[in-house]
Amino acid sequence: GAVVSQHPSWVICKSGTSVKIECRSLDFQATTMFWYRQFPKQSLMLMATSNEGSKATYEQGVEKDKFLINHASLTLSTLTVTSAHPEDSSFYICSAPGPRREQYFGPGTRLTVT
Amino acid sequence: GNSVTQMEGPVTLSEEAFLTINCTYTATGYPSLFWYVQYPGEGLQLLLKATKADDKGSNKGFEATYRKETTSFHLEKGSVQVSDSAVYFCALSESGYNKLIFGAGTRLAVHP
To answer: Could you say which DSSP state residue B50 is in?
Structure first.
């Protein structure tokens, strides 16, 4: 079946530093990928749509200069949290539309900013 | 705006018990509705879906019926197993299967 991976699964960084999260479609190509954020015991909130070869589309209220998205190939999208602060600590999940017109989700990346 | 509300968990059941997880939605148009399941350490997986009113989605013994009149899409299973322990998310999309809007998730724990 279609698989989406994320790396790393867990990252701790210091306040003020940047951290990059990778999302890969392992056995299918994805011109579009989606990035979600999930706070504890809350819904997944769509942050942005990543488009291969063009700029990402951000949801209202999401700072595009804070959350940099690059979709450089048909199998890889990256989310960089710039100048991270403790309030950026969260669970970040990516997804990609794949076979059978379904969304395939990565296992998520837990970011802790100290 | 569009939104999804589902019952708070955790839901704790004994094996072979009947399961219902309530889900209601608010949408301006005619969305597609989904149930996703997340097993420990894994990504969300599509459990079932319904794309129009009165459709019934079903998979692995789980069922949900798209009720436009009550704006609901409740998840049911007649006899749960320990292996069903997971977090269940109700979701909607007004653009097919992209740009999903999720409920908060309901954790189900099934004990032998």
So the answer is: E
